[in-house]
Amino acid sequence: xxxxxxxxxxxxxxxxxxxxxxxxxxxxxxxxxxxxxxxxxxxxxxxxxxxxxxxxxxxxxxxxxxxxxxxxxxxxxxxxxxxxxxxxxxxxxxxxxxxxxxxxxxxxxxxxxxxxxxxxxxxxxxxxxxxxxxxxxxxxxxxxxxxxxxxxxxxxxxxxxxxxxxxxxxxxxxxxxxxxxxxxxxxxxxxxxxxxxxxxxxxxxxxxxxxxxxxxxxxxxxxxxxxxxxxxxxxxxxxxxxxxxxxxxxxxxxxxxxxxxxxxxxxxxxxxxxxxxxxxxxxxxxxxxxxxxxxxxxxxxxxxxxxxxxxxxxxxxxxxx
Length: 321
What we know:
Blueprint: E1 2-5, E2 8-11, H1 16-25, E3 38-44, E4 53-58, E5 63-66, E6 69-71, H2 78-83, E7 89-101, E8 113-117, E9 120-126, E10 131-139, H3 143-147, H4 151-162, H5 168-175, E11 177-189, H6 192-197, E12 201-202, E13 205-207, H7 222-239, H8 243-272, H9 280-303
Parallel strand pairs: 6-13
Antiparallel strand pairs: 1-2, 3-4, 4-5, 7-10, 7-11, 8-9, 9-10, 12-13
Helix pairs in contact: 7-8, 8-9
C-alpha cells in the first residue's frame, strides 16, 4: 500500500505473515482449514426444495457443500480454470524475492531504493526496524529451473552473476538473507482482455485476487486489489436479493479496474526493465524513453492508479434465500 503527501508517493511495506495473521485472527477458531487441496467442483442447480449450491471435493477425501464459492487460490487457481478463465501468461521476466533480518536493527530509512541495469531491476524496502524486503527482477534465464528449488544456489546466482555489479549496499542486504524466505519464480499475468471478457462468475461461484486478475508486481497492487475485491464483494452480496445476483454485480464492478491494473503493471514493468527480450536497438530506445520520459512524466500518472476509493461496506440486506 502507499500514502501520498503533496505530489510525493511513499510506499508502506507490510509483512505478509503479519497481514495473514491479522486477518485470520478476526475469524472464529477452527474456521481456517490448512493443507486442503481442491480436487473437483460440481455445481448443483436450485430445485423447488433447495437453493443452488456447489460441492467441493478435497484431496484428503473431504466433501464440502457451499452456498457460495469464492476462489482465492492464486495465480494457478483451480476455481478460475473451472469457470473457464484464460490461463495465466508468462511475462518473460522472473523475480527473486528475499527477506533479510537484522535482530539489532538495520538503520535504513523507511524508503524504497531501486537499481536499474540492462535487463535487471533490483530494489530493497525496509518492512520494520529489523527486516528488509529485497527483490531482483530479471529477464527469465535457463539457470532459474536449476536454482529455483535451492535457496543457496539462488543466493549465489544473485551475488555472483545477476546482481554482481549492483551497489555494495544492496549486496550486503542480500547476503544477510534468511534462506527460509527466499524464492525465484516467473512473473505471470492474465491477458487483460481475458480479465475484461472472461467468465469470472457462474451461479454462486466466483474468484478474487490473483485467481481473478493476476498481475506483475510493478504497481504493487496485487494484494491491495485483492482487498478491494473483498470490500466490493461483501457489499454486492449484502445488497443483492440472491447470491448469484451479488456475484454477478461484483464481477461487473471489478472488471474495468482489474483490467486496467493488469495492463498498467505489465507495461510499466516492460518499460522499467528496458524492454523484455528485445533486440539491442529496440532496448536502447526503450531505456532512453524510460530514463528521460517515463519516470518523469508517465509513471507519476500511472501511480495515480493506487489512489482508489472502493467505497464503504453497508448494512446487510436480507436475502430471499
